[in-house]
Each structure stands twice: as C-alpha cells, then as structure tokens.
Amino acid sequence: MTPAEEKPVRVRLAPSPTGHLHVGTARTALFNWLFARQHGGSFILRIEDTDKERSVQEYEREILDGLAWLGLSWDEGPVYTATSHKLPATSYKGNYGPYRQSERTARYRHYLQALLDEGKAYYCYCTKEALEAERELMLADGRPPKYGGHCRNLSLPPSGAIPETIRFKTPEAEIEFKDMIRGKITFDGNLLGDMVIAKNLDTPLYNFAVVVDDVDMRITHVIRGEDHLPNTPKQILFQRALGFAEPAYAHLPLILGKNREKMSKRHAETSLLEYRTRGYLPEAVINFLALLGWHPQGDEEIFSLDALTKEFSLKRVQKGGAVFDEEKLEWMNAAHIKRLPVEEVAARLKDFLPHAEASYDRQFLVKVVALERDRLKTLGNFFELAGFFFELPEYDSGLLTWQDTGPLKTKEILEKAARIIESLPPSEFGKESLARVFEDLVQEEGRGGVLWPLRVAVSGRAASPDPLDIISILEKDETLRRVRTAIQKIESTIVL
Ligand code: GLU
C-alpha cells in the first residue's frame, strides 16, 4: 500500500475558467465525485485562474452552475459572502466558494523562492527571440528542441538584464509512475530540458501551481483527462524537488467524436450547459457521462447517481478513447424522462414553456404531460409535440379530408361528430365513454373516415396521439370550438 492510499481520500476538480464548461470537464468532475463518495473522502473544487488574461468570471460561474445542476457538490472551500465574490449566497452548498489559484499567490511565491534558494531553480534572462533562434537551430539539426541551459550556471546576472522567467533545473532522470488506469508509465526526463515554472515570483505557470495546490489541499488521487498525461512527469519532478509526497494518478480516456477524432463542436455540442438549455435532464447527462469510458459489470445501462455511487470503479475505466454519441444521450434522456413521475416532468417543464408558468392551468398541463411523457426525447421538444393542446395551430383545410373522401362528406362527418360531442355531459369525457359514443359513427364511416378529420380538427396536425385521448384532455367546450372551426374551414372550400 502506498502512503497515498492510507490517507483519507481527497480528490479535486481543477478547471480553468477560460471557456464554456466542457462535457469532458463534467465527466472528470463526476468520476472524481464518485471516487470521493465511494471512499468516504472529499471532493474539492479549485479554479485554476493563473492565466489572468484568459480567465473569465462568467466561465467560473458556469463551472459552479454546471456542477450544481448535475448535483456534484464539493465539500469544502473558503466561506465566501455573496458580496465578496458575486455568488448568490444560497445557491451553493454550505456557501463554500471554490479555492482559486488567484488567491493563493503567496503560497506559490514561497515555494518558488525555496527552489531558487536551494539552487533547484534559477532566473533565466534569455529573450523570446534568442529562445526561438535556439529552437530553430535544434530542429534544423534534427534534435528534439529543449532549452539549451544558457542561464543554468550563470554566476552573476548579465549586467542590466531583467529576468524573463524562472526555470527549474530538470534532473537528467527517468521518471516512472503507476497510473491507476494505464499501469506503469515511463518518461525520459532528458527530453524535457530546464522548464519554465514561473514568469516571476507572483506569476507561476500551471504545472508549478498545481503541485503546490495539490500538496496544500492534501490531494491523494489526481483523476484527470488523458490530455494531462504529458504534465504528470513534470509535476512529479517538482514534487520531488520540493520534498512532497506523490499522489496516485488516474488519467481518463479521451472523449472522441463519432468519427473517433478528438471531440470538437463539429461532432457534438461540447458545452455542458447547452444540454440543460436543450432540455436534457441532469440525471440523463450524469448517466451518459458515467458511461464515457467506464463500463458497468452487467448489461444495465440506466443508472441513477446513487446507483453509480455503488457500481462505479476506476478498475472498469478503459484506456482507449470513449465515443460521445449524441443519439445515445437522447435515448438515455428519454429513458430518464419516462422514469420520472408525471407531476415531476410537468414541474421541470417550467423553463421550457413559451409563456410564464403561472399562465398555465396546472391540472391541464399535467394531463398533457401524462399523455406525451413517453414520447418526449427532451424537455425542449415538449412544445413541438404538445403545443397544439395549448393553442390550435394554423392548418390547411385540405388536411381534413381522409383519402378520397370529399369535402362535403368530411363536413357531414364532422357535423355528426360535433352533435355527438354536444350530447355528451362534460363528466363523460373519459376515453372509454368517448369510444362508446363514437362507435356507431365509426361503424358507418370507417375508422379513418371519422378519426382522421377529428384528429386534424382537434390537433391541427397529421400526426398526433389518439384523437379520443386529445378530446378527453381538451374536454367539451374546447373540443367543440375546434371541431366547429374545422367545419367552417371545410365549408369555405365547398363551391356551390
Ligand atoms: N486546469 C486544468 C484544466 O482545466 C486541469 C488541471 C488538472 O486537473 O491537473 O484542464
């Protein structure tokens, strides 16, 4: 057992707020969160905003919102007030803000100074131009480019020169570590050259800041995307130089588009919150993200977050890339919508209704949802499917006629239907009673002959649920109004 495994598990998500919250970051968050929950450990959120020019407050906000939406709460952090950090005071669990690198400059400064004092790092005076020229030369010689070490052994700074960067004295060593997913990994340290670790004492670069953060935050396991694999040997060298313990590493497989290339916007939407906007359930997104690289033991594919907490294991995470299949996500979303109680689906439609929620009759909405729920792919397509319940769409009178039934006959059938509906007490609008009262007419005129014009009359559409289901929801007055509209429409096409 390595020392890291004996300590209470502490993992982190360390996103940079330099773009929309990527689905890959959300997957990393989920795997870390599950690992923490399974081991009774802590999940820490750290915003990596050392790159001041590219870090944007809105993107940080998106990270917090995205995690809150998925239900992946983090366990600790500085206690912020709403005013000090522009966070709504009640939105995030315990009012913990995330840790932010921008607030930890003193810590990086301390360790940078320590490396300089111990001769493990040095100021570099080489200009960008000089470095570029050196690089070109090495490439022309067919050598892998790395820093030539010009400033490594300077006894005195060049007169009048200002340091450009702080460099790490990379030892010439082989770096080996065990990845929990990939097994033993070896890097040749000779290829690295002396690396820049900071622009100056107050501006560390990513790889250095991460090492200080991980030790300060007592991180035991670093679970992150495979794209960070090349950073790991560098970080291990810094840990060794500073005398820090090495955390365990697990690098998650890349997420690929359908053609197995690295996923870009061309393959699928990559911004997590875009899926919320489109009407995906967080439950479905969680389920889908879990299967991006992890395989359960059995055939079951539908998992709740609770079930995942029981089932998930890093041991079943694959090495090869995981394909992001949007159709599968849509299928999964439909499956999760079906599992929700009708009332709950109705409540979640709140943000997807064209008008203010209060303007909808709750009971009516719930009835419509009960009929349409199992057809929904996303909450966002509810109105596409069911909008006609709330407002009869425009339709062409020609749609009312069934096969070769002419307009006169169609009108006659609709008038008979109207009379049947008129004769029925409002309490009798259940589907069975409706089927009973329409039985004779259907016998006389055929199913299509009656139900087709009736469907178009009540829905304005060629495809809809069973017209009798629709009528039982619209009830007497609205159904009559719609059938009469249809009669008028067809009348206007009859040339006398
Ligand atoms: N800040 C890095 C990113 O956004 C993650 C760093 C890490 O996980 O070590 O990709």
Summed up, the helix count is: 19
Instruction: Tell me roughly what share of residues is in helical segments.
Output: 40-55%
Query: What form results from the Cα inertia axes?
Result: elongated
Terminal-residue CA separation: 94 Å
Radius of gyration: 32 Å
Structural class of the secondary structure composition? Answer: alpha/beta
Q: Proportion of β residues?
A: 5-15%
Q: Quick one: biggest sheet?
A: 4 strands, antiparallel
| Global mean pLDDT | 93
Distinct compounds present:
glutamic acid
Lateral strand order in the biggest sheet: 4-5-8-9
Which segments are poorly predicted (pLDDT under 50) over 5 or more consecutive residues? Answer: none
E-strand count: 13
TL;DR of this structure?
The chain has 496 residues and is of the alpha/beta class.
